[in-house]
Design goal:
6-stranded mixed β-sheet; globular; Rossmann fold; 4 helices; single chain; 133 residues; alpha/beta
């Protein structure tokens, strides 16, 4: 997989997902964004695109975190705040569909299935190790 051009989700792939109970915009959530531990294997790959459901308002914090942890990537796509949470897989699929990436890595089983269906492309789920095509 090291030679593949990949796009990835952020939370759950590059770092652990925030625990339930974190409210978007709360001090706890912002602290999580700044201090989340990276998932070790993720830094071994050059990432074509990070396509995340993280909101665009956290772009500066996200870029600082990526630099701090040495991630190499071409493009960062964060979800605009006007897109509802239930539309996150549609947002991700639309970008991935137009991407030159050969694979998208998603942490959520449900989102991986939907992104694969909507993009008509392969999506690897890091939660269960299944490739959805």
């Amino acid at each position: 997989m090291k030679n593949k051009i990949v796009s990835v989700d952020f939370d759950g792939v590059l770092c652990k997902d925030p625990e339930s109970g974190y409210e978007f915009g709360s001090k706890n959530y912002i602290d999580f964004l700044k201090t989340a531990e990276p998932i070790s294997f993720a830094r071994e790959y050059k990432i074509n695109e990070i396509i995340s459901g993280r909101r665009m308002i956290y772009k500066d914090i996200t870029i600082a975190w990526l630099k701090k942890h040495g991630f190499i990537y071409n493009k960062l796509y964060l979800k605009p705040t006007d897109i509802p949470i239930e539309c996150t897989p549609v947002f991700k699929a639309e970008i991935y569909k137009k991407s030159k990436s050969e694979l998208y890595i998603e942490s959520s089983i449900g989102q991986a299935i939907l992104i694969s269906i909507l993009s008509k492309r392969g999506v690897m789920c890091s939660e269960n190790g299944v490739l959805y095509e």
